Amino acid sequence: MEIERKFLVKKENLPENLEQYPCKVIEQGYLCTEPVVRIRKSNDNYYLTYKSKGLLAREEYNLPLTKEAYEHLKLKADGIVISKVRYVIPEKDGLSIELDVFKAPYEGLLLAEVEFPSEEAAHAYQPPSWFGEDVTYSTEYHNSTLSRKNIN
């Protein structure tokens, strides 16, 4: 079960020296958006992911792929293949902030996600001051939605 909250972040509010934190270069495409079936390259690791419906909490299953299988499925992705850099920033109470810095065509979009052990912990969470609007309950900022947007 994935239980997470998601927040917009403004560039001027970013923590200093992001490069001090571990990061992953991520590329992901969607084979289906209802239910969500995604392929992802994370550095040199490849996955096929299934996600159930939901906003705050939803089932998620990750299966390993080979590079060849990923490249084959990437050609079948619907819409935009999303590219981003994900920084993992330590947070209070043993949590981690995953800060996604998107590349073109979403350059400038910054999303912070925090995963929780329970829905109660998610509801009780007080985000740091550099977080912006809470978009947890908005499907507009799901990567699966972003992959289908018309970019001109």
Characterise this structure.
The structure is a single chain. The protein is mainly beta. It has a single domain, classed as Hypothetical Protein Pfu-838710-001 (Beta Barrel), CATH 2.40.320.10. Helices cover 12% and strands 43% of the residues. It has 3 helices and 9 strands; from the N terminus they run ββββββαβββαα. Strands 5-1-9-8-7-2-3-4-6 form a 9-stranded antiparallel sheet. It is globular. The mean pLDDT is 94.
Structure, briefly:
Residues 1-152 form the CYTH domain. The protein is mainly beta.
Count the E strands: 9
The whole-angstrom Rg is 15 Å
The H-and-E topology, N to C, reads as EEEEEEHEEEHH
Mean pLDDT: 94
The number of helical segments is 3
How many structural domains can be distinguished in the coordinates?
A: 1
Q: For the report, how would you describe the main beta sheet?
A: 9 strands, antiparallel
Low-confidence region ranges: none
Q: Helix and strand layout, with pairings?
A:
Layout: E1 2-8, E2 23-33, E3 36-42, E4 45-51, E5 57-58, E6 60-64, H1 67-74, E7 78-90, E8 96-102, E9 110-115, H2 119-124, H3 143-146
Antiparallel strand pairs: 1-5, 1-9, 2-3, 2-7, 3-4, 4-6, 7-8, 8-9
